[in-house]
Amino acid sequence: MPFADFAELNWQPAQDAKAIPNTLREMILDHHSLTQRLKQIHNNEFFVRVISHDWQEPEPSEKAFLNCDDQHASVREVLLFGSGQPVVFARSVLPVSSLSGENRALLALENRPLGEYIFSQPDLRRGPIEVTDMKASQFNAYLDFEFATEIAWARRSLFYLRERPISVCEVFLPEREQL
Questions:
Q1: What confidence tens digit (pLDDT) does each residue in 63-75 have?
Q2: Contact call for residues 155 and 17 (beta carbons, < 8 A)
Q3: Which of these CATH numbers, 3.50.50.60, 3.40.1410.10, 3.40.50.2300, 3.30.460.80, describes 6-172?
């Protein structure tokens, strides 16, 4: 994980966050599919690059957020690309206890967007959105360019798929200046 622990971040309810930049506010507060929105914005020039997808112990703050004591979870980190540029870093935490029955399909997404799958399911419920800001430079290891002092905004949500919790954190990478 590029950042040490979510506990070090100042997560707050989205409705209380006054500092979200106007350029991101609507997208961050949207309760619908980010994948669908990005496809619209980028005229379907959209793809997912999987950084990692393996079994790990969730971070302590992730366990607390999920209200789950599972020692193992399927943790998936990806970059979402729009118009050929990385626009979002996403980290999904899928506890073992949430991966029974039809939810096991989440283990076989490969380079397909998680959002596309879960928003197509009839038994999906989304919890409140929390937001925070962070240094964009902590994602440099995954990029073919570097951020210096830029700030990235993130949101996280609990989704309940067939009444089983999964955590999804999406970090909106700053737009780069075109050279």
A1: 999 999 888 999 9
A2: no
A3: 3.40.1410.10
Q: Helix, strand or coil for residue 75?
A: strand
Give yes or no for a contact between 47 and 37, defined as CB atoms under 8 angstroms apart: no
| In contact, 3 and 9? CB cutoff 8 Å | yes
Which DSSP string corresponds to 62-81?
HHHHHT---S-EEEEEEEEE
pLDDT tens profile 78-121: 999 999 999 999 999 999 999 999 999 999 999 999 999 999 99
The pair of structure tokens assigned to 101 is 């029955």
| Cα 17 from Cα 119, distance rounded (Å) | 25
Sorted by sequence, the CB contacts under 8 Å of residue 18 that are 6+ apart come out as: none
What pLDDT does 177 receive? 61
